[in-house]
Amino acid sequence: MSSQNAKYLKFGSAIVVILLSLGFLAYTGVQESKSYYVTIKELRGMGGSAYTKRLRVAGNVQPGSIKRTGTKVEFMLVENDQILPVVYGGTEAPPDTFKDNSQALADGSFGRDGVFHAKQLQAKCASKYAPQQPGTPGNQMQAEPAKSITQVQSGSTTTSN
């Protein structure tokens, strides 16, 4: 084999190793970031596969269930008649909108102990996004004084109050 062919073989094998490494990193990155959105009822019905997947579960925070210890938070998610205990152990404190009766989305894994271990937590305040009731402050329209409207109809001008 000539020295020219040996150089091409080394160069080609280096490219193959680099491409395989990049492919492996891309595959593991996608697998790591992939999460499945499930309801609490679906989570209970998944069986053993629930313990091996990254999951997202949503529900309302049960009133009186929030227990805070630093950035660790324990609470219950409620959806219809299903209740799921959740432990959030992220590095950041829960959002300010995380309160009783707020809608929450927990992202993490389901443990064999029956507790959902969340790494990320999102919440929105239920009262902030609910439609206002008629007659409540902020929902009343202020009446503006009547303005004169000038209309032009087929060459003539009319004014109405």
Tally the beta strands. 9
Q: What's the helix-strand series?
A: HEHEEEEEEHEE
CATH homologous superfamily classification of the largest domain: Nucleic acid-binding proteins
Biggest sheet strand order reads 2-4-5-7-6
Strand content range: 25-35%
Which descriptors apply to this entry?
34% strand; two-stranded antiparallel ribbon; 161 residues; disordered C terminus; OB fold (Dihydrolipoamide Acetyltransferase, E2P); elongated; five-stranded mixed β-barrel; alpha+beta
What does this entry look like structurally?
This protein has two domains: 1-34; 35-129, OB fold (Dihydrolipoamide Acetyltransferase, E2P), CATH 2.40.50. 25% of the residues lie in helices and 34% in strands. The radius of gyration is 30 Å and the shape is elongated. The chain starts with a helix and ends with a strand. The strands form two sheets. A five-stranded mixed beta barrel has the order 2-4-5-7-6. It has a two-stranded antiparallel sheet with strand order 8-9. The chain is built from three helices and nine strands, in the order αβαββββββαββ. Mean pLDDT is 75; it is low at 139-160. It has 161 residues and is α+β, with helices and mostly antiparallel strands.
